[in-house]
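Q: I'm building a small set of examples for a reading group on sequence design. Run inverse folding on the following structure and report the sequence directly after it, with nothing in between.
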């Protein structure tokens, strides 16, 4: 008799509590997103699809850990793989069309990623950030989530690149600390 996903995850170190915690965290974030967007009357959250996204994430995590012989999962992998499965499963179901309803799951995933990346780097949308660059990044992110094929790995790479950009000293980015070039 084939194992259920839950049995497989339990055998590989994840408890039902781990799955439930991730499910609840995502559900809370989904509800916050829905409240901010004021779209509650026009959508419903498909709990089965959200649960499948969470289980798919954990199954991928087990496989990654087995393949790479690692015990911990990096944050960029956590966000990238979670975002991927949320995109695939599309837990937000539109019941009444509204402006932006066509790509509401993509908008949610973009919000989830931006919020997560900002949290990991202790950033806020304050005066210290380049608002134009952030807006361009968000537009490009949403465009890619809507119209391009994305994979867990491409999302992970995007997140790692964002983290790396945050870690560069400002003078390196502006060019004042760049190494001198010689004509050879």
């Amino acid at each position: 008799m084939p194992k259920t996903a839950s049995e497989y995850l339990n055998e590989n170190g994840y408890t039902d509590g781990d799955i439930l915690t991730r499910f609840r965290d995502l559900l809370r974030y989904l509800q916050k997103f829905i409240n901010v967007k004021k779209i509650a009357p026009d959508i419903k959250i498909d709990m089965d699809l959200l649960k499948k996204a969470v289980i798919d994430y954990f199954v991928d995590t087990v496989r990654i850990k087995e393949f790479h012989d690692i015990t911990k999962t990096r944050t960029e992998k956590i966000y990238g793989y979670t975002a991927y499965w949320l995109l695939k499963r599309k837990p937000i179901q539109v019941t009444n069309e509204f402006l932006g309803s066509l790509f509401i799951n993509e908008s949610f995933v973009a919000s989830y990623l931006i919020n997560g990346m900002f949290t990991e780097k202790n950033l806020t949308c304050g005066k210290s950030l380049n608002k134009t660059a952030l807006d361009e990044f968000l537009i490009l992110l949403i465009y890619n989530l809507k119209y391009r094929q994305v994979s867990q790995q491409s999302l992970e790479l995007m997140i790692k690149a964002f983290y790396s950009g945050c870690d560069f000293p400002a003078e390196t980015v502006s060019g004042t600390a760049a190494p001198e070039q010689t004509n050879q």
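The longest helix spans residues 16-37.
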